[in-house]
Design goal:
heterodimer, A: 121 residues, mainly beta, 4-stranded antiparallel beta sheet, B: 111 residues, 11 strands, globular
Chain lengths: 121, 111
């Protein structure tokens, strides 16, 4: 059974960099894309970006200038950094796996438990 | 890029059936989507992948009460024999060449 376990700082001051890491247990790490998705309090889901085991990444254009997603395939882990955080970045952040079959990738089929990140002075 | 539209709320009585709708934007009616359930205070859980043909593949452990269907640009999630634990937010998801998109979500209340 695939499990995603995530961690990182839950409280930031404005202008600081948000940093989260997600570890993948069970199943293959290669052959999939690994995403970060966030959910502001009381609101819907927003895709941030994704990366594969080789380091190829895609980002939401609205966040691209501030986001870096990296991967450590030796540890089956991937990480998110979001720079210059503001109160608008306050949200629950989820890591998730995109299901890929034969090189074609589809929806997110496994999710991490979520981490609430609050940006406040 | 595709846009997904969902009604903000829906309700159904215990033991009844409810049908939630997710509508794809113009020009994207052939897109595959997925349905996710988010119970209060929990992470989303993938329910199924749903194709334009109406064919669907459910996630591991998803009860038989959950089914999917399609008509044109509309994708449906039907929940039969509603249970109290079905009270949750339901999101649809799709993907374009370089973007992944979620609908705004439907809050389902079980009466």
């Amino acid at each position: 059974q695939v499990q995603l376990q995530q961690w990182g700082a839950g409280l930031l001051k404005p202008s600081e960099t948000l940093a989260l890491t997600c570890a993948v247990y069970g199943g293959s790490f290669s052959g999939y894309y690994w995403s970060w998705i966030r959910q502001p309090p009381g609101k819907g889901l927003e895709w941030i970006g994704e990366i594969n085991h080789s380091g190829y990444s895609n980002y939401n254009t609205s966040l691209k200038s501030r986001v870096t997603i990296s991967v450590d395939s030796s540890k089956n882990q991937f990480s998110l950094k979001l720079s210059s955080a503001t109160a608008a970045d306050t949200a629950v952040y989820y890591c998730a796996r995109r299901d890929c079959i034969g090189g074609i990738c589809y929806h997110h089929d496994y999710w991490g438990q979520g981490t609430l990140v609050t940006v406040s002075s | 890029q595709p846009v997904l539209t969902q009604s903000s709320s829906a309700s159904g009585s215990l033991g009844s059936s409810v049908k939630l709708t997710c509508t794809l934007s113009s020009g994207h009616s052939s897109y595959i989507i997925a349905w996710h359930q988010q119970q209060p205070g929990k992470a989303p859980r993938c329910l199924m992948k749903l194709e334009s043909s109406g064919s669907y593949n459910k996630g591991s452990g998803v009860p038989d009460r959950f089914s999917g269907s399609s008509s044109g640009a509309d994708r449906y999630l039907t929940i039969s024999n509603l249970q109290s634990e079905d009270e949750a937010d339901y999101y649809c998801e799709t993907w374009g060449s370089n973007t992944r998109v979620f609908g705004g979500g439907t809050k389902l209340t079980v009466l």
